[in-house]
## 1
Amino acid sequence: MAAHAVDSILFGLRPGETVLIEYSAVSSPELLLYLVCRRCRARGTPLLIDDISDAFAESVIRLDLMGLELEGLRNVPVIKIGGSRDIGSVFGRVEVDKYFLDFRYYNEIYKKIVPEEVVFNPVLGIHKLFIALDRHEVIQLIRNISTFVGKKSRVALYFLNLDIMERYSPELLSFFEETASTVLRWDFEGGKYRLRVVKAANSSIMGSTVSLGFRDISRP
């Protein structure tokens, strides 16, 4: 199955959505990020990546080890949230210990760089904050994220390590899932990567599943 098979799900997401992409620790979520970026470039859809605690840098390094072509990823606009490893075109920085609760400073950066068209906005490493912060702070973080639901300038894609969340914050995972407008699952089984829609604002993609091999994802 060709990589563009994900288009029905990806471009079935609506402006203003907050989307959770739940993945297992061994499912190589960086491949889905690679696919999202490739399909957005193919469609001329703007991208903006939120890189929390160097999660984007870690993803790019793993993709490089897989032998994938990374020209597009090295130039994508990035907002750094914590961390120190710069990959992509970094347009702004937010210090986690200072701004993680109210997002006001993030909003200032976002408004300066967001294009007039709807932007796809992968958010990488959010689970790192869930581990680092105490329960009250995590609840406040999710509430802050919920204020972005309905912001029609973007489609936010929160990549979330499901194994970590189920171990450390299972009840807060449910809170986050309820807040999100759409929930996707990315896993690896039987030699295939699979993207499933388990909750959707757009009823036409509800229950959809796409299965891909590595060659499908890596093929130009």
## 2
Amino acid sequence: MSIWKRPASLEALATQCQQTLVAHIGIEFTELGDDCLRGRMPVDARTHQPYGLLHGGASVVLAETLGSIAANLCLADESKMAVGMEINANHVRAVREGWVEGCARPLHLGSTTQLWEIRIEDERGRLVCMSRLTMAVVNRG
């Protein structure tokens, strides 16, 4: 059973993110499953830190992008929106090139807060970053 309350497609999500940081660093949405939003991000000059490794901040951008969009797709009431309150990230593996993929899954879907877990892995399926995102559900406007 799907957790999504608002209609969405991968194409619509990509269009929504045009001309934003998401598009600038090359994040692509890859799957909208029943309880998971997946996306990937290139590990290249746009997302490297000065030593040639994936920048931890770029991993956080991927995590917050997936979690934030997923959180809003879970809201049935169009007068509400979900906004980030807090995010943390544990960086456990360095990546120099290729792609990383994240999957955002809910831990709690409440009427005033949501809690999301975002797991980011390298192309071999190894954990790169584990993030937790707390979202506040607020009135739009």
## 3
Amino acid sequence: MDSNLRNTQLWLAFKSGDSEALGQLASEHYRVLYNYATKFTKDRELIKDCIQDLFLYLWDQRENLHSSPFVTIYLLKSLKHNLFKKLNQEKKWVLDDFDTESPFSENTNIESTIIALELFVENEQKVRSVLNNLPKRQQEVIFLKFYETLSIEEIAEIMDMNKQSVSNLLQRAIHNLKQNWQLGVYLLYYLYFNVRLQ
């Protein structure tokens, strides 16, 4: 079954009072929600608390929620809102400036994919280190684009930005990867083709 259709069916069931449907939504989205939240904080307990609070809120407010939102986008955006609220309360969060480079281009080829895969396997720890050194907003856009394979439009909605700003931010992130370490570029090739060829 198409994941969007399944999400919609579970959402409608949960809105009708099916707690098991909400549990399935939570279970199936936990990984992406947790990984997304790590782009803003490394406080694991805070992340877990925010995810739990999100689903408790959804249950309490189920009768007032939209009937069929884009569920994954809705959950990511809601989690981000809750997390920012708590981080601001604890004074642990600082927004990065918006980036203003030209739009990102996705021109690649299959040879780059093969090279990228080999390099990624051989140098995974170094690649992770490079990604972790990016500013938080750049980590976020890389995660949403390449790990969750969301479109620019979907990312813009989650990040509360216009499409051009998302493209600019994505290009700045890639530019920084190039400057920091050559393997960052290969990683992007690998991630891009890995999701396109599945």
## 4
Amino acid sequence: MKIVYPIIISKTSDQTVPYFVSIPDIEGMTQGKDIDDAIQMARDYIGLNIIDRQDNNLDVPNSNYTLPSAENGNVVTLVDVDIDEYRRKNDFKTIKKTLTIPNYLNKLGKDNNINFSELLTTALKKELNV
């Protein structure tokens, strides 16, 4: 799922974070140290926001892609986020899975201090080419 939202980047008087970013379609705000960082922070904010909405079965707002007019030297642009790719790279929330393995493998694994969760995660990544 790819999404695109307009953002507004405004220059601030704060030297530490001189750019403020508004994301109107999701009522979001972030900041950046330069224009590139501001766009990256907006992309990150959007990705986290959409993943959270999806995980909580909330609607993902559509955008009409209408760019607000640039005023007072603001930069107005569109930011795209591939949510599926973003989730793969940033969703490290763990979940508990119940699985069944033969008793002898369980015993051997315990005897050899195998971390079953780590092993399963590694095997799934290899199998799924992730």
